[in-house]
Write a structure and sequence with these properties.
This is Ribbon-helix-helix protein, copG family. It comes from Streptomyces yunnanensis. By secondary structure, the protein is mainly alpha-helical. It has a domain of 39 residues. Helix 1 crosses helix 3.
Length: 73
Amino acid sequence: MPNAPKTPTRPVRVDLDEWAEFGKAAAAMGTDRSAAIRAFMAWYIHKPGAKQVKRPDRDAWKAESSEAQGNAE
């Protein structure tokens, strides 16, 4: 089956504002939400070889949010 994902999706309940902020923070680290969540889960369950996930500098993605809001006004 072409374009079939390797892993099934898992629905979770997340506040929309937090989801948006998480996306910006993940992008600031050069990744996406799915990869960040998988990396966190691997570390959390002590998967061999998994490393603790680094958090982005808050100023890096908060500044982008502020600039985007300023441009929208």
